[in-house]
């Protein structure tokens, strides 16, 4: 009953149990944090707007994104993945989500940022529906924990529109 | 060397009833592991509820050897979610993030484009030849939880099978020679 094997087994089991309990508590403690992020996005310029040879509309934008995501960081946060998506409805599709820009925020110090950029991914429609189209810009975030459950959220910013003509 | 002698002695002194008991308890261990796995499949709705990250394409979020818990609900797939998908002609499933979604109005079908956070371009190069979008049936689940490092156990065991056999052998010997 008191051999080396039994004691080693008991110590190991106890250690793993404690580790699991601590991971669970760390993950649960994220629920106590209620983030209050802010974001503001301006479309500064429409660089070009055209129909591709195979018929899909594509547009290039210059964006100014400023956001403060510092309230998302807790002691269990490894990083925050943040991205800006254009969201709109067309006749064919009930929802189109096109990611325009994304970034990884590694720490709280970098969570208050301001960036001036063209769209990192192509803003292409499925079809030719973008002329005069109204769309939302939505800032999404995904909080990646050091361990446990992942969190996500978004800020929807409505009221953007594309020009009536190609340019 | 005393314990080796003890072990040999205990094997010699085995009686039929004890052997049966040990076989049953070994069976219990195997079946309860199976029950947990199948139960997880039912609860999460995903055919593989837990996956091990094998590549660095999602770094620094997910590193090689981390474990992801998957969930497959009826909820529609949206941009930003981390999904696990199978591509026709590829055996190993891929864990990447959704960057574009187009959801059809009449049928509700979705066209999805993915990208690894650490990769430069999107995943069209990884898809089957000529495939532009992923559909719902390609997707095995979305990642909801994360546990670091634990997956290294399986990575080591698949890459160095000898360690697996040593471990199984040692455990089997322990079960056979234990007295209660």
UniProtKB/TrEMBL annotation, chain A:
Keyword field contains Iron: no
InterPro entries assigned: SPC3
Gene Ontology process terms (BP): protein targeting to ER; signal peptide processing
Any one Gene Ontology cellular component term annotated for this protein: signal peptidase complex
Matches recorded under Pfam families: SPC22 (PF04573)
Segment forming the signal sequence: 1-26
Membrane topology recorded in Swiss-Prot or TrEMBL: Single-pass type II membrane protein
Keywords: Endoplasmic reticulum, Membrane, Signal, Signal-anchor, Transmembrane, Transmembrane helix
Localisation: Endoplasmic reticulum membrane
Similarity section: Belongs to the SPCS3 family.
Cited function: Essential component of the signal peptidase complex (SPC) which catalyzes the cleavage of N-terminal signal sequences from nascent proteins as they are translocated into the lumen of the endoplasmic reticulum. Essential for the SPC catalytic activity, possibly by stabilizing and positioning the active center of the complex close to the lumenal surface.
The name this protein goes by in its record: Signal peptidase complex subunit 3
Automatic annotation (TrEMBL), chain B:
NCBIfam families linked: sigpep_I_arch (TIGR02228)
PANTHER family the UniProt entry points to: SIGNAL PEPTIDASE COMPLEX CATALYTIC SUBUNIT SEC11
Molecular-function GO term, any one: signal peptidase activity
Location in or out of the cell: Endoplasmic reticulum membrane
Membrane topology: Single-pass type II membrane protein
UniProt entry tagged with the keyword Isomerase: no
Record keywords, A-Z: Hydrolase, Membrane, Protease, Signal-anchor, Transmembrane, Transmembrane helix
Reactions performed catalytically: Cleavage of hydrophobic, N-terminal signal or leader sequences from secreted and periplasmic proteins
UniProt xrefs under SUPFAM superfamilies: LexA/Signal peptidase
InterPro entries reported for this sequence: LexA/Signal_pep-like_sf, Peptidase_S24_S26A/B/C, Peptidase_S26, Peptidase_S26B
Protein name as annotated: Signal peptidase complex catalytic subunit SEC11
Family to which this protein belongs: Belongs to the peptidase S26B family.
Highest taxon above the source species: Eukaryota
Primary location recorded for the protein, binned into one broad class: endoplasmic reticulum
Biological process, per Gene Ontology: signal peptide processing
Annotated ranges, domain Peptidase S24/S26A/S26B/S26C: 37-103
TM helices/strands, residue ranges: 20-37, 139-156, 162-178
Species of the source: Protea cynaroides
Keyword Transmembrane (UniProt): yes
Role of this protein: Catalytic component of the signal peptidase complex (SPC) which catalyzes the cleavage of N-terminal signal sequences from nascent proteins as they are translocated into the lumen of the endoplasmic reticulum. Specifically cleaves N-terminal signal peptides that contain a hydrophobic alpha-helix (h-region) shorter than 18-20 amino acids.
E.C. no: 3.4.21.89
Entry GO terms, CC: signal peptidase complex
